[in-house]
Amino acid sequence: MTSDLTPLFAPEGVVVIGASRQPGKLGAAMARSLAVFPGARALVNARRPEPGAGVYASVAEAAAHTDGRLDLAVLCVPASGCADALAEAAAADCCAALVCAGGFGEAGPEGEVHAEALRRVARETGIRLLGPNTSGFFAPELGLTASFVPAAGQLPAGEIAVVAASGGVNHALSFDLVAAGNGISLGVGIGAGLDVSAADVLEHLAQDARTTAVALHLETVPDGPRLVAAVRRVAAVKPVVALVVGRSDVGDFARSHTGALATSWRTTRAALRQAGAVVVDDERELVDALTALSRVQLRPHLDPGLGIVTAQAGPGLLLADRAGTDGIRMPELAATTQGALSELLPPMTYQRNPVDTGRPGETFARVLATTAADPAVDLLAVYALTEPDSVDLASAAQDAGLGTDSPAVVVIGGLPEDVAEQRARLHKAGIPALTGPASAANAVRALVTYARQRALRDEGPVLEPAATVPPGPLDEDAAKTFLAGLGLRTPKRVACDSRADAHYALRLLGGPVAVKVLDAAILHKTEVGGVHLGVRTADELDAALDAIGPDHRYLVEAMAPAGVDLVLGVRRDPVFGPVVLVGLGGTAAEALADVAIRLAPLSEAEAAGMPDDLAARALLDGWRGGPVLDRAEFGQVTAALAAALAASPDTAEIEINPLRLTPDGLIALDAVIVPTAPPAEENDHAQA
Questions:
Q1: What is the pTM of this model?
Q2: How confident is the model at residue 279 (pLDDT cuts 50, 70, 90)?
Q3: CATH superfamily label, 1-133
């Protein structure tokens, strides 16, 4: 099967199978949509052929009477007839097909039979198949509208591509992008994805010169590593902005804390972000992000500085407030910059950043140029109302040299017709224009995020595994011995086979100690009364041992100093493979879902940045005199842990909970290593 999707998205000719003269039929809608396609076109209706009207009984007959090759077949027949129609198209040398019909896997066992028949024809013939269950695709620059939505034929050509799981979302996002002043290079609804997937389309777009940025909408991910590789390939040359569905569907919780937290939605977002995509929360943010990223990008930078120039203080304050919330640095302007501004602006205006001009005047372009030129400013955000008697915003931005060499976003307020005129001029000049402080803030966040993503791609190599996990099952003592070999500190401890050994350990270590059941089969020791803390005396030790019971081994361990507890885990995600998770330790991580996730293996620098994703990161930076996390130490141990799991196919999961941050650094207080379960056990867990 060829990987080239050119016959699908840029065919020389198109044939509609199931074309109809009845207005309400799918075949009639598709025939109308494709009527303006400038390449070869043909219609097929086996039941009602009219050769004189250009409607033929078969694809072979249509091809024989058509000038030009028919690369693409658009199937407008019921699910039960699609496999035969696809085989007929392939036999007539069609290289690609679009199937819009429903009634396949979503329709139960009978529909799955139809789906498997389609897959079989695609495999045997090599024809590429988009769909089924999609409203189609469109490529406006080519005049190609393979969609049954009439308005899709009026979408203007442009530089943004849309790759959506849903045909409806493909159209909705494309219409929203156009309403924001953009054009579309390609819009694709994947539908059921029996053959052509989002990853296939992304790989096609990586080489598409017409496309400068990509919108990606996902509902499910059939092949995580392939999707990540495709996103990484595209993001290396053009921005990808991703929207993932599933925030409220966390699915079934796995047995461990790590499994419970690394839900499909969170893991998918983390994987896309790590691959270089800008991940957004909703479709409005996606449109704003692409409006900016399709026109300008910042140089790779881990902490770009934002400058704001506002002609009205209130909207500028909204923008500055949101930038602070998003963690975007707003540096104070240099003294030389402020001096230059003081000669251009009235004395009562604020000039340190944001720069408040008051009502803009003839110096506005010079104010923009001066602020943008400040050494600490990597991106300029501008707000102004449309006031033709005061300043022409589009002219001022161009006179200031804003655009590719001086990245900026411009926010315009005013009546819709005035805003549209200014926006069109700004976009023509390569300057993204938005229509409100919130939209501008979305654009700023996207530009800064993409700059950070590009900088992180150069953040050092992925570690080679220093060690593989020993054959299991491993109890806590053996797990900690392995972790110590990776560079993690663990408390002093003694593994005990008897009560006498435990009393010896207490005398050796001195109180207070933790006394735990030592059994590789018990993953959650506290739930079975298997953990007793702060044991100081022989009597307290006997009470703890009695509570644990006589038929176990024991672990006696020195108590660690107080600190901040984290959970650090690596596990095998069923879609993406090995992943790393860090969050607050104990039950707080699960209750608050304040976690950071990455794919494994990963570089030390990438791992070191994970704690900065946490809402509770202030607790790791000396909150109220508390300990400070050494990011480099955390990056080293996390990358080593991730590399070990990636190199140990017989290990399903390694979890450290809690991993305590103390004044002396990190120390692993508890550790669990879970071997990969045989298939039967995995099924038992899935049903539990």
A1: 0.91
A2: very high
A3: NAD(P)-binding Rossmann-like Domain (3.40.50.720)
